[in-house]
Amino acid sequence: MTDWLKKALTRKITIKTTRKPQTIQIEPDPKLVIGIKFTVAMTLSLTALQIAHMAILRKWNSEIFSAITALTGTITGIIISQKA
């Protein structure tokens, strides 16, 4: 499992048996992993756009920042809900 995102979204469940506990790993849906990768890529792209906007125009763009904040909240929410 070399994919860090797939590893972060994998659930580990421990089942208690009479002999010894067993750990089962439940991998996430591939569509979820692709969606998160797209969201991370868009966040990085918007961050680069905000940096370029600040460097060239010397102004803060609140719309770009709002999009970055929304995508960051989406990523965090999905990761937290997937691990629970």
Please give the number of β-strands.
2
Please identify the structural class as seen in this structure. Answer: mainly alpha
**Helix content range of the residues, please?**
55-70%
Task: Please list the strands of the largest sheet in the order they lie side by side.
Answer: 1-2
Order of helices and strands: HEEHH
Describe the biggest sheet? 2 strands, antiparallel
Overall pLDDT = 88
Q: Which stretches are low in confidence, meaning pLDDT under 50 for 5 or more residues running?
A: none
As a whole number of angstroms, the C-alpha radius of gyration is 18 Å
**End-to-end C-alpha gap:** 21 Å
Q: Tell me, what's the shape?
A: rod-shaped
**Count of helices?**
3
Query: How much of the polypeptide forms β-strand, as a percent range?
Result: 5-15%
List the helices and strands and how they pair.
Blueprint: H1 4-9, E1 11-15, E2 22-26, H2 30-57, H3 62-83
Antiparallel strand pairs: 1-2
Walkthrough of the structure:
- The chain has 84 residues and is mainly alpha-helical.
- The chain has a domain at 28-84.
- Helix content is 67%, strand content 12%.
- The chain has three helices and two strands.
- It has helices at residues 4-9, 30-57, 62-83; strands at 11-15, 22-26.
- It starts with a helix and ends with a helix.
Which key terms come to mind for this protein?
two-stranded antiparallel ribbon, rod-shaped
In short:
The longest helix has 28 residues, at 30-57.
